[in-house]
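Lecture 7 notes: from sequence to structure.
We start with the chain below.
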Amino acid sequence: MEENDKKLQRTASFNTGMSDVVLECVLQYVHDPRDRAAISLVCRRWYELDSLSRKHITIAFCYTTTTDRLRRRFPFLESLKLKGKPRAAMFNLIPDDWGGYVTPWVREIAENFDCLRSLHFRRMIVRDLDLEVLARSRGKVLQALKLDKCSGFSTDGLFHIGSLCRQLRTLFLEESSIIERDGEWLHEIAMNNSVLETLNFT
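Predicted structure tokens for the same chain:
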């Protein structure tokens, strides 16, 4: 009985011995997603603190979760990487219209993720309207946009990015299928952006 009481005291001490302030200071130095996941499993309070302090998330497959769940779980995200089609799409083993649309994610980002500064879509279908919505809602704060092996958009969509995303430091379009209409989007970037460091559209 006495031994059980000692164990209970040690458990209580563990649960209350570290204040939220101290834990938040520690969490800002923990970046590995596996370590973060382990921390969130310790107790409900640690789960909540992880939710509030997590800055970057990678979703390996866009259909494994929902936009609403992402918003509730990590409301203060600054960076999001979202993957759509499986790797088989790179070898033409999946139809172009298989899925992986960014539209619901862009809508959620536009409405709720005020802190988001970096966005990376990989193997997803992006429409010109998606880029326009993103530029109008997050253009003032967006610093990095990567459309990696994406399709479905044209230079018209990039025009909105060039004219409204004036804090953009990285624009990555490598291996994306871009419908060429004109080169005005490059002119917009040149006229409106003085901080761009990386532009890749090979």
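Points to note: The longest strand covers residues 79-83. The chain has two domains: 17-54, 55-200.
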